[in-house]
Each structure stands twice: as C-alpha cells, then as structure tokens.
Write a structure and sequence with these properties.
This protein has 177 residues and is an alpha/beta fold. The chain has helices at 12-30, 47-55, 107-118, and strands at residues 4-10, 37-43, 62-72, 77-85, 95-103, 123-131, 144-148, 154-155, 171-176. It is found in: Cytoplasm.
C-alpha cells in the first residue's frame, strides 16, 4: 500500500446531523405509501450509514442487503455489473429504499434499480451519503443526498481504501504522499 494521509473532510457531527435530516425526509415520504418497505444496503460500504439511518426512521420496514461488483479497470468501470448476493426478501409489490455510501458513475445503481424493478418492486428510491453528480455516466435519479463532494478519494464511515478505514467516524480525504 502506498504511503498516504487522511484528513477530515466531513466531521462525525456533520454526518450525524445529516443522517437525522435524511431520515426525517425519508420518513415523511414513507408515510405516503401503504406498501411494505424494504431498505436495501449495498455492501460493504453502506452498512454503517444504513444502520444509523434506519434507527432514525420511525416507520415499519424490513432490512436487506445486496452485494454487487463492477468489472473494469481501476480508473473506469466497464459498466458490467455482477450480483454477488441478491436480496433475501421478496420485493414484489414492495417500496424499496436502496442505501448507498457514495455514487460516482451511477452505472451500478442503474443496473441494480432495473434489476429490482424487474423483480416486481412497486417503487425504488435511492439514498446516498455522498454524491459526485458531475461524474455520472448513467441517468439514475437520486432521491436523497447527504453531501455532494468533489472528485477526491475518500474513506471512513463505511468507505474503504484496500479494506481499511471503514471504521473511521468521519469522511476523510486521502492524499498520497
């Protein structure tokens, strides 16, 4: 691993405040539907964010996870997505909330959204902690956005660098030394 340093970009307090804000917005929208709700986290990055988020939502919901992999070079995704772990719950007729840690190209979420709708989901909404909208290659609607960030490599709060730093309570900017 190359030598690097991590500087705080978004503090633990800013994240906590944003999680509560997003949860309130989501809860308000969920109350408009009579359908069962399933919150689906995309592993591994979303796990911490999703746990904090759903604890703040006062509305009945189930929780599930998917694991997906995009193949291509490390600099650019090929857009080919492979489902490594599908949801366990039956999504037919349900309202789904996909929780993601960071959205860049949007190609993975475009694929996952179509996949879930093809399985009969009534609706699919997307919530992300971090968003890089100017990097989009797919026109995927994002319903709830925590923070829009510049094109920098970040870690923390579930996001990793070589499987490290997921446990940081903040979002940090990685700088190679």
């Amino acid at each position: 691993m190359k030598k690097h340093k991590v500087d705080v970009m978004i503090s633990k307090e800013e994240i906590n405040n944003k999680v509560v804000e997003l949860a309130n917005e989501i809860e308000k929208d969920l109350k408009k539907s009579d359908n069962e709700v399933i919150c689906i986290g995309l592993l591994k990055g979303s796990a911490i964010f999703m746990g904090d988020l759903i604890r703040e939502i006062n509305h009945p919901m189930k929780m599930d996870f998917m694991s997906v992999s995009s193949y291509g070079s490390s600099m650019e995704t090929s857009g080919v997505v492979k489902i490594l772990k599908d949801v366990d719950e039956d999504v037919e007729g349900k309202d789904l909330l996909i929780v993601e840690d960071i959205i860049d190209s949007g190609l993975t979420l475009e694929y996952v959204t179509k996949f879930l709708l093809n399985k009969g989901a009534a609706s699919v909404k997307i919530c992300t902690l971090l968003d890089k909208p100017y990097r989009r290659k797919a026109d995927v609607p994002v319903d709830y956005v925590g923070f829009e960030i510049p094109n920098e490599f970040v870690v923390g709060y579930g996001i990793d660098y070589a499987e490290l730093y997921r446990n940081l309570p903040y979002i940090g900017r990685v700088t190679l030394l």
